[in-house]
Amino acid sequence: MSGEPERFVLIERWSSQEALAAHDATPHMIEADAASPAFRAGPAQVLRLAAEPLA
């Protein structure tokens, strides 16, 4: 975000909550979560957004 060089924003789109849960249970994600304190100042803030039709 502009003006916040320490902030990292990641936007992902998943077909379902189940697909996201399966991804989070993969070995590489478990390893990444374990390593994240080395490069993050605190826990991730997760915002779940729901798509709305435009019309």
Give a description of the structure:
The protein has helices at residues 17-24, 27-35. The model has no long low-confidence stretch (mean pLDDT 86). With 55 residues, it is mostly helical. The longest helix is centred in the middle third of the chain and has 9 residues, at 27-35. 31% of the residues lie in helices and 0% in strands.
Key descriptive features of the protein:
55 residues; mainly alpha; flat
Query: Roughly how many Å is the radius of gyration?
Result: 14 Å
Give the percentage of residues in beta strands.
Answer: under 5%
Q: What is the SS-derived class?
A: mainly alpha
Mean pLDDT: 86
Helices and strands, in order, run as HH
Fraction of residues in H or I helices:
25-40%
Largest sheet: none
Number of helices: 2
Uncertain segments of ≥5 residues (pLDDT<50)?
A: none
Distance between the termini: 29 Å
Shape: flat
SSE topology:
Layout: H1 17-24, H2 27-35
What's the quick description here?
The chain is mainly alpha-helical.
